[in-house]
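Open question from group meeting: does this chain pack into something compact, or does most of it stay loose? Before anyone orders reagents, we agreed to write out a predicted structure and look at it together. Recording both the input and the output here so the notebook holds the full record.
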Amino acid sequence: MDTHERKLALDQLTQSEAQLLKLVEGLTPAQWTFRESSERWSIAEIVEHLILFEDFIASAIANAIAGPPEPGKKVQAATKQPLVLGLANARHIKFNAREAVRPAGKWTDTAALVAELKRARERTIAFATETQARLHDHFFAHIAFGDLDCYQWLLVLGQHTARHARQIEEIKADPVYPGS
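Structure tokens returned:
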């Protein structure tokens, strides 16, 4: 990735993390566990999902770059850049999370949950800062968009966090949200 791409990825990762951390700062236990409905996740579940997703994608990127390059997929992946960069603002489009990244209540202590989120993002930022891998030559499939290159996946991680930050804002705006 070139200097501009690295800066964009790092900006997306750091800004979305800061946005999310600000939204969860000082929440009460009731606020952490509030659900708008039985089909929706609580803020604690959203944060757990973000950790699981970050680790899942980091592992998928590592596996993809360990494999052979697939330069023939570059042209198709490039057409998906607007989808990737619009993910956070496309809250009207719903995705069903893969089973591997669905929250299961692994963290009951919210301080530990937030600390793990920070650790996961720190690992991703370190990778994005240091990697010399040819990320545009390695791919794996998004559940809705199909094949994305590994650079696009770094952008997805930032967009995904920002998307869920918007979801948390929606939860906090609910008239029956505790402390409203």
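Observations to bring back to the group:
The chain has a mean pLDDT of 94.
The two ends are 45 Å apart (CA to CA).
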